[in-house]
Amino acid sequence: MSLVLEFRKVKRTGLAEAFLGGGILAAAVPFLNMTFRSDRYLSANGSPVTILMDANWQMMSMLNVLLTVAGACILYHIEYADHTMQKMNTLPIREVRLFFGKAGVIFTFSILFLLTEAASVAACAARWFGSGPETAARVLYIFGFALLMLLPPILLSLLVSSLCRNMWISLGIGVVCVFAATMLPTRDFVLTLFPFALPFQTPGSLAADAVRNYAIAAAAEAVLIVLLEVIILNVRRLFE
Amino acid sequence: MNIIETQNLTKRYSGFTAVSELNLHVPKGTVYGFLGPNGAGKSTTMKMLLGLIRPTGGSFVIDGRRFPDDRTQILKEVGSFIEAPAFYGNLTGEENLEIIRKILGLPKASVSEALELVGLTDFRKRLARKYSLGMKQRLGLAGALIGRPPVLILDEPTNGLDPAGIHEIRTLIRSLPRQFDCTVFVSSHLLSEIELMADCVGILNHGRLLFEGTLQDLKFSAAAQGYPTDNLEDTFLTLIDADNRRRGGAR
Ligand SMILES: Nc1ncnc2c1ncn2[C@@H]1O[C@H](COP(=O)(O)OP(=O)(O)OP(=O)(O)O)[C@@H](O)[C@H]1O
Ligand SMILES: [Mg+2]
Fold first, then answer.
1. ipTM score here?
2. Which residue from A1, A78, A86 is facing B88, i.e. has the nearest CB?
3. CB spacing of A82 vs B78 below 8 angstroms
4. How confident is the model at residue B227 (pLDDT cuts 50, 70, 90)?
5. Which of A13, A88, A93 is closest, CB to CB, to B90?
6. In chain B, which residues have their Cβ closer than 8 Å to the Cβ of A78?
7. DSSP letter string, B160-196
8. Residues in Cβ contact with B247 at an 8 Å cutoff, skipping those fewer than 6 apart
């Protein structure tokens, strides 16, 4: 119910177009890379999908996280711009429902742009490496993992946006966090657990138990962020 | 029977009291005019009634339900319009009301009814962002009236309307209790405006209730204190002025 409602609210905001455009842009990354530098990758060792992911995922995931940050900002901007947040609070719904609805919107769009990217990676593997349909399962697994890793930054950027009446502040915080994430040393497991750093991980370059650990960490962070949002909303109410 | 009753309702901001031990009695089925100069605490009171801000002290009951335990139930029965109109600029007037309708779980026809009431039917397909100030105000009102709630809380609903619009909205508010069997709690700066639509008035100054009763009572009480009564606006100004002087000239 609140998901449908949140989808109605974003009509004409350009959000869908932004996600579509961003998804296509990210999907174009492996294609362009292969078009111009295929010899470099064709001679590399390893499975085609792993080679493609290693070469392009940094750039693609960066686009993905920035997209979700911008999406979160827009989703709350429409509430704060013309006082609708106050109106929503005078209606018989709980404020956290808004949060879940908006998370659902970004999550749905994330599935769409990750599928676009997955299709692109699979197509590149087929075209340049001659991979058959057997890669499909592997690609889906990798992008399923990517979706899970995207969950904490989606929720955290929504949490930040829900607290900032001014969209530029939440956008600024989000962008700084994304860039900080790219600069964290990747050797230290604990540091890579920073929510905005998670989407840069991909199973191809991780050991099996690391994949499991990241999955658990992402799920735990998601739960924690939701709890934090609930607590903040309740505490904030006490001070208004 | 009183549909809204407050007991010593108080809101204090660090060292400053915006609303002080307010005891309001809003009779069911009336238009109650809530009057006061800028900064008197009208919006603050209304926001407390809607649970938007937390009272520092006191309590209130709306339609037999006590805040904060019955908050959701209260909000189901109260249509409200506070300070500035709220709308999604990227949606049309109709789509805006559709959102509220969905949340309240009202029948589909309630949107067109609300649009008709405030005279926006012809502009329902226009983006709210492109509405004129008065049209936005009307959209905000439609968002309060939708679904015919038994209680309406309207904060300066005629702000930004042209003279014809003010007259139209006043007439609408005046007719609501009879038409929809509801109670209207409406604020304004102008006694002359309240006089035209309200059955009862409450006069607020610096967060304190100076007077509460019918307009007739107000005239009697003013005459008894030797204030002018032939022009109610003068009565109001004298009342406020006298109260300000009693406070030792502190404004
Ligand atoms: N968050 C806040 N912090 C501190 N003071 C506040 C806050 N909100 C309101 N006030 C103060 O409370 C007082 C009452 O404000 P309120 O908005 O209720 O007045 P009002 O009667 O609605 O006035 P107006 O007719 O101008 O709308 C004002 O002095 C205002 O500055
Ligand atoms: Mg006000």
1. 0.91
2. A78
3. no
4. confident
5. A13
6. 88-90
7. T--HHHHHHHHHHHHHHHHHH--EEEEEES-HHHHHH
8. B206
CB atoms A90 and B52 under 8 Å: yes
Prior bond of B68 cis (ω within 30°): yes
User: Domain-by-domain residue ranges, chain A?
Assistant: 2-238
B89 reaches A (C-beta below 8 A): yes
Domains plus CATH for chain B? 2-247 (3.40.50.300)
pTM confidence score: 0.92
What tokens does B225 get? 């204190």
Q: Which residues of B touch A9 (CB under 8 A)?
A: 88, 91, 99
Q: Pick the residue whose CA is nearest to atom 18 on ligand 1.
A: B41
pLDDT in tens, A156-215: 999 999 999 999 999 999 999 999 998 888 788 888 899 999 999 999 888 889 999 999
Res. A117: pLDDT tops 70: yes
Of A17-21, A56-60, B246-250, which range is least confident? B246-250
Cβ-defined contact of B100 to A11 (cutoff 8 Å): no
Contacts of B210 (CB under 8 A, 6+ apart): B203, B204, B239, B240, B243
Per the prediction, chain B carries an average pLDDT of 92
